[in-house]
What we know:
The chain is α/β, with parallel strands linked by helices. Helices cover about 15% and strands about 30% of the residues.
Amino acid sequence: MQFTAKQISDFLSGTVEGDETITVTELSKIEEGKKGTLCFLSNRKYENYIYSTNASVVIVGLDFVPAQAITCTLVKVKDPYSAFSVLLEKYNEVLNQTSEKTGIEQPSFVHPSAKIGKNVFIGAFTYIDADVVIGDNTKVLQQVHIGSDSKIGTGCTFHPGVKIYNRSVIGNGVVIHSNTVIGSDGFGFAPQPDGTYSKIAQIGNVVIENNVEIGANTAIDRATMGSTFIRKGSKLDNLIQIAHNVEIGENTVVAAQAGISGSSKIGERSVVGGQVGIAGHLSLARGTQIGAQAGINFNITEENKQWHGTPAQPLRDWMRASVLFKHLPGIEKRITKLEAEITAKLQS
């Protein structure tokens, strides 16, 4: 794959500063750039690399003005990070060669009642159950299971090993990575007088709206009744647990190893850091930002607020408290000494 700086600029609706005819064949990080590679500069703390990189072409912002001489050609765009991500996606499609695949590989099983759209690819060892509907241009890679009565939109990609339980509803442009499970039973058990637990049937489903991406080894439980919702535009990392009847708001991002307990609702455009734990039956306001390893056990009603710590507290409070943490041993010694002095004076 070879492109000129001019072709890249035209594709990204940018402008070229330098040699329009210079060609690139690979993508790279700016600090590892070499001749024939394309990279980008978005975060200005990496600006020093643009003066030493051997990359042929660098994507930069419209307002970038070099402070020193550079040897690379610049492609100026409005948002270099987003522009480079578009190129990464196209490059990935070429490498994986999935975008052009169609048809049904064998061995696989597609139930006669299933409805398969145009230009769909179904990989080997995949099982498509009864009354499944799969929209046009969707790619179902190897060893995927799609349960009965599930509805899959257009332009989706399910990577190898994805398991989708029955009656799941998945919108358009959804990407689900390997070994993720959609629609497994919610964790519902009723305690009995003899100390045992009786399973509560989970008769709901999972609804994933348009343009959601879900990482590998994530589990999203079906609702006890009704639906577990992942609203449009949300991005979920690897190794996340989302319990029954949870609702993830539009354009929310959740990092790895987070756990969201049953029936909690997260507002749109929220950010949930890695290893965050959210208790059940809670409501988190729009734009809530939760730092890594925080624990949430209360409703959050104020929008666009940052929370850290366990139990969580507003960011400024947590920062003040964290400054004191390292001084606690010394404070304890001072208090112990003062107590001893007071006791000695009282006894004298």
